[in-house]
Amino acid sequence: MAEKKSVTVTIFSTEYPIQSDADPDRVREVARYVDWKMREVATVTAIRSATRVAILAALNIADELFKERDASRTIESMLGKNISRLSSTLGEEEK
């Protein structure tokens, strides 16, 4: 098991010490993204509560994740169909 590393990140003007076995640069990158999404929500809404901003940002991030998963499934399905078609074509040529 990898050793946990400590990194301090700032999200929505608050510092958070994070213990993670992930690469510290990756942790900072993810934290910057969360900070950006929270600031985006705060800019386009009248919401000033950090908790509410965080919840809306989390919902936006989850929506992005779900859309990416759906797109990935669509691509996997298309690839599977193409592989089947190519396999059938190759099988017919061997006859």
TrEMBL record:
Cell location: Cytoplasm
UniProt KW Cell division keyword: yes
UniProt keyword annotations, A-Z: Cell cycle, Cell division, Cytoplasm, Septation
A single Gene Ontology CC term: cell division site
Signal peptide positions (record): none
Cited InterPro entries: Cell_div_ZapA-like, Cell_div_ZapA-like_sf, Cell_div_ZapA_N
GO BP terms: division septum assembly; FtsZ-dependent cytokinesis; septin ring assembly
Coiled coil: none
Keyword Cell division assigned: yes
Quaternary state and interactors: Homodimer. Interacts with FtsZ.
Function, in words: Activator of cell division through the inhibition of FtsZ GTPase activity, therefore promoting FtsZ assembly into bundles of protofilaments necessary for the formation of the division Z ring. It is recruited early at mid-cell but it is not essential for cell division.
Protein name per Swiss-Prot or TrEMBL: Cell division protein ZapA
Provenance organism: Handelsmanbacteria sp. (strain RIFCSPLOWO2_12_FULL_64_10)
